[in-house]
Amino acid sequence: MPTERVALYLQDAHSLQDGIKYAQYAESKGFEAVWQAESRLVRDAIVPMAAFAATTERIKIGAGVINNWTRNIGLLAATWLTLDDLAPNRMICGIGAWWDPLAANVGIERRKPLLAMRETVEVLRRLLRMENVTFHGEFHHVTGIELDVVHGRREPRNVPIYIGATGDKMMELTGEIADGVLLNYCVPPEYNDRALELLEAGAKKAGRSLDEIDRPQLVVCSVDHDRKKAIEAAKVLLTQYLAQQPHIAKASGVSEDIVKQVQSILTWPATKEQIHQAMQYVPDEFVLKISATGTPDEVRAKVEEYKRRGCTCPVLYPMSDPYLMIDTFSY
Question: In terms of CATH, what superfamily is 7-223+296-328?
Answer without folding.
Answer: Luciferase-like domain (3.20.20.30)
